[in-house]
Amino acid sequence: MHKDQHTVKMIVESAQMLCTAHRLLDGTEVVVTKTNKNGVKRKVKEWQLADHREPLLYRATHANHPCSIWCRETVENYLWLHTLTAALCDEYWHRYGKHKDKPRQHKVRASGLLDLLATPPRNIPCGGLTPFAVAMPDQYKVDDVVKSYHNYYLGEKTGFMRYTHREMPDWVKKGLFKNTLKYGKPKTVDLEQSDLPIG
Fold first, then answer.
1. How far, in Å, CA of 27 to CA of 50, rounded?
2. Can you give the pTM of this predicted structure?
3. Whole-angstrom distance, CA of residue 178 vs CA of residue 159
4. Distance from the CA of 92 to the CA of which of 42, 45, 73, 182 falls in 20 to 30 A?
């Protein structure tokens, strides 16, 4: 499903959510004074870990984003996101790494961070996989989370719609084709009502 831009971006964002889960669930909240590049000082809330993870994990970020909250609700949610992050790293390798003169992995995998994040936070509760967070404008939401994200992708994320070393998914081709005929440019598509042939 992920276009090129999101294959790269979502690895980092997913690792940030996983790191944030570790920091919020296992860390100690502290307030530190930071100075920005203009010399302005401000107090910032951080969560520090008293073990080997501290220097390796990203800082906590976007702690109240619906997807960050979902990630740390249960160990099953956390592990699902870790599995997705590993799959995106594999996809990154397929699209960019193995086709270069100097093969490369995404930095989240190459640095060892992905392996470190394979172990969930100590204080994360069990409770089964909970319903996925749906973080998008309401106009794209339907009862099915996958269809909601398809609608969102086609409605908001069609710029630079490239799939390097991959064929564009059929639902993208069908949605773009239908919307181009109807509107002259891609817009939101109701995939349930679409009957146009792919191609």
1. 7
2. 0.83
3. 16
4. 73
